[in-house]
Recover the amino acids of this structure.
């Protein structure tokens, strides 16, 4: 016994099948492109960074990479260390340490932060992110 | 109203796309006896598009610096997700393009499709072929492997056979006395910007010629009659032919799928086919690897240089052969296109192919 299928039905079936197949191929092609373009872990996203204790002298600042972003460590008083994100909370510029004034200045829009990251003036909406810092012998452990 | 219909109407009232569709796609009629060889142009368009897309992706990680280029390619292949796939699609895709180009040219030659005042179409296609060879050559250096470095050294050195200006030309091509960072810089610029821009313009010109002059029907079957080309411009129409869309478009799509499958088959089942060991070693300007050979499509030219007693004769013969091919439509002016009625041409055609294949094999094993 044969079943007759009208041409419009066959056409609709074929178009649906071709559309499905096309969608599958498109998805299979897009996935590798998406993965290729996704950020690659370059090893800079480690949760802990170790620095030699003498990289930062009293009153000075030392900039380094923490989890792929700029960070800064200070020694405001001998033996006392503070680690902060160096990314301004206003629009993401990197703050600069003003040694004379003992504060951070964001060169983009003149945002000012204290040595412990609190907002002193300008447009930044919140303090600099604080990072945990521990003195371990001659090494500073951040994070 | 369904969303798709609404969208079509939205565009239609603004751009009149239905008239364009009816005239340029549905109303674009091809000869009824058109065969699968006519799909190779569409195949090449698809492959060139693939090369452009994969090239853009590779550019995001590739570093055109002699000290970093090899490591950046290794990084793409070994570290970046699917980097190996895009690198292989690009490198092996170039070989598949050359295969498709050769088949396209050979089919046009066999069916004498260059006849009927189609000199511009042939010439633009012939320049596209040579430019593609140039893009392959410049791209070959970029991975900065031993193979890249020494194949480029040998290829650029061949220009030294030209009398008087030869030595200067070699240095000019390399940007210095030897292949180095300056060569990489200029080859990179030519490979990713200069040559592709010219190629794009030439492909546009080629398609314009094809569309403006009209498709040359296959010279087979009872409906074919050898006719003299008229002394004035006439678009060759094919009343009662098959519409380009959807009829021939489906055939185009099928053959494109076949070529993509062929490319993927090489990548997955014979990934080392075009990559000898020297392709995996960083370039060392002080150590020439043994048996360095150019890519398969340059082997005939490489061996021809060695056959003749002097390189200048070898270069001259190659130049004469390529000039003859370029000017063929101006030389072969008879109206007859049926291969069976052109025994001299077909004999030269077959012998020519056999000769080039034989010289290439000789070059490979020499």
């Amino acid at each position: 016994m044969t079943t007759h299928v009208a041409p419009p039905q066959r056409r609709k079936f074929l178009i649906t099948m071709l559309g499905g197949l096309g969608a599958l191929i498109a998805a299979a092609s897009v996935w590798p492109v998406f993965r290729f373009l996704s950020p690659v872990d370059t090893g800079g996203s480690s949760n802990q960074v170790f620095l030699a204790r003498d990289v930062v002298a009293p009153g000075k600042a030392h900039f380094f990479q923490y989890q792929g972003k700029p960070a800064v460590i200070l020694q405001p008083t001998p033996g006392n260390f503070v680690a902060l994100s160096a990314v301004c909370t206003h629009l993401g510029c990197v703050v600069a340490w003003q040694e004379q004034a003992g504060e951070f200045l964001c060169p983009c829009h003149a945002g000012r932060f204290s040595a412990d990251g609190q907002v002193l003036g300008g447009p930044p909406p919140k303090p600099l992110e604080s990072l945990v810092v521990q003195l371990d012998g001659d090494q500073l452990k951040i994070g | 109203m369904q969303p798709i219909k609404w969208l079509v109407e939205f565009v239609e009232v603004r751009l009149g796309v239905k008239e364009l569709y009816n005239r340029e796609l549905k109303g674009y009629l091809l000869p009824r006896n058109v065969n699968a060889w006519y799909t190779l142009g569409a195949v090449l368009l698809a492959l060139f598009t693939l090369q452009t897309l994969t090239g853009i992706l590779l550019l995001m990680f590739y570093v055109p610096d002699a000290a970093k280029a090899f490591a950046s390619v290794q990084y793409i292949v070994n570290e970046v997700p699917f980097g190996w796939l895009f690198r292989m699609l690009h490198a092996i895709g170039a070989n598949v393009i050359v295969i498709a180009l050769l088949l396209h040219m050979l089919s046009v030659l066999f069916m004498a499709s260059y006849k009927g005042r189609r000199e511009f179409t042939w010439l633009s296609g012939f320049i596209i072929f040579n430019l593609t060879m140039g893009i392959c050559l410049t791209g070959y250096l970029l991975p900065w492997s031993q193979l890249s470095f020494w194949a480029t050294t040998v290829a650029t050195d061949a220009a030294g056979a030209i009398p008087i200006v030869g030595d200067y030309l070699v240095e000019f091509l390399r940007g210095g006395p030897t292949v180095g960072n300056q060569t990489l810089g200029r080859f990179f610029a030519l490979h990713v910007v200069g040559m592709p821009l010219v190629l794009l313009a030439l492909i546009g010109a080629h398609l314009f010629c094809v569309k403006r002059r009209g498709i040359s029907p296959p010279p087979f079957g009872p409906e074919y009659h050898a006719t003299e080309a008229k002394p004035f411009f006439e678009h060759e129409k094919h009343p009662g032919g098959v519409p380009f869309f959807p009829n021939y478009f489906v055939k185009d799509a099928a053959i494109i799928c076949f070529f993509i499958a062929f490319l993927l088959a090489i990548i997955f089942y014979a990934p080392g086919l075009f990559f000898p060991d020297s392709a995996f070693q960083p370039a060392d300007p002080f150590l020439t690897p043994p048996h360095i050979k150019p890519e398969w499509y340059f082997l005939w030219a490489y061996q021809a240089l060695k056959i003749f007693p002097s390189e200048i004769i070898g270069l001259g013969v190659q130049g004469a052969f390529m000039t003859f091919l370029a000017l063929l439509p101006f030389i072969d002016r008879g109206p007859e296109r049926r291969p069976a009625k052109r025994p001299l041409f077909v004999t030269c055609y077959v012998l020519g192919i056999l000769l080039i294949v034989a010289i290439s094999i000789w070059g490979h094993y020499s």
Summary: Residues 121 and 146 of chain B are 39 Å apart (CA to CA). The radius of gyration of chain B is 23 Å. The longest strand of chain B covers residues 29-30. Chain B is about 65% helix and 0% strand.
